[in-house]
Amino acid sequence: MLTLDKLYVNYGAISALKAVSCNVQQGEIVALIGANGAGKTTILNSVSGIVPTLSGTVTFLGETISGVPPHEIVKRGISQVPEGRRVFANMSVLENLEMGAYIRNDKSAILEEIDQVFVRFPRLLERKKQLAKTLSGGEQQMLAMGRALMSRPKLLLLDEPSMGLAPMLVAQIFAIIQEINAGGTTVMLVEQNANMALSIAHRAYVLETGEVVLQGDAKELAANPDVRKAYLGE
């Protein structure tokens, strides 16, 4: 579904990605793990078109999307939940969800989709008229995920969904990610909580300083002594 081939990205003189190649098959959850500054978010932002690539290609469903503007990439079926939620603070929950459907004009289907988001996240239904800035961190994460789903993505990019959340909420968010995946949405996940990420992913890539250093089946990586020592706190 998604292929990154020898991707290079620089931030000024700093090399953020160095010849990164990875892929995501339809129906998978693929996790990117690694320390802060390893290049995980840069990969997602390259796929979304937010960050320009220096060289290499990003291919989605057989078409090159390198250099395609972000709003066009959303139209092609890729939606991103950014790190730190980035909800529209002074808009209501309902308005945030409506913003997620900005590429669509099928009004009755949009209303159905909003209802589906409320079924998946009942807490948002209770707060649908509240301003997003009044929500808790967990509720904002649910809203950011619901908003991304409003564009009906084929591929959902999730950047640090557990950041700043209580352990009970982390488990809930990860269960919802599995539900979304089981419903047919492919997921690429960046996550500091490597244990949680590897527990739900099918495959994973380990990044260090802008390079892929390990890749493979998520359960095998979770059992790898080097991975356990470096990323799983053992």
Compile the SSE list and pairings.
Layout: E1 2-11, E2 14-24, E3 29-34, H1 40-48, E4 55-60, E5 63-64, H2 70-76, E6 78-81, H3 93-100, H4 107-120, H5 122-126, H6 137-149, E7 155-159, H7 167-182, E8 186-190, H8 194-200, E9 203-208, E10 211-217, H9 218-223, H10 225-231
Parallel strand pairs: 3-8, 3-9, 6-7, 7-8
Antiparallel strand pairs: 1-2, 1-4, 4-5, 9-10
Helix pairs in contact: 3-6
Written description of the protein model:
There is one protein chain. This protein has helices at 40-48, 70-76, 93-100, 107-120, 122-126, 137-149, 167-182, 194-200, 218-223, 225-231, and strands at 2-11, 14-24, 29-34, 55-60, 63-64, 78-81, 155-159, 186-190, 203-208, 211-217. The protein has 234 residues and is of the alpha/beta class. Strand 7, helix 7 (167-182) and strand 8 (186-190) form a beta-alpha-beta unit. Helix 3 (93-100) packs parallel to helix 6 (137-149). The protein is globular and about 45 Å long. The chain starts with a strand and ends with a helix.
Number of strands: 10
Return the structural class.
alpha/beta
Spatial extent as radius of gyration: 17 Å
Shape: globular
Distance between the termini: 34 Å
Poorly predicted ranges (pLDDT <50, ≥5 residues)? none
- How is the largest sheet built, in terms of strand order? 6-7-8-3-9-10
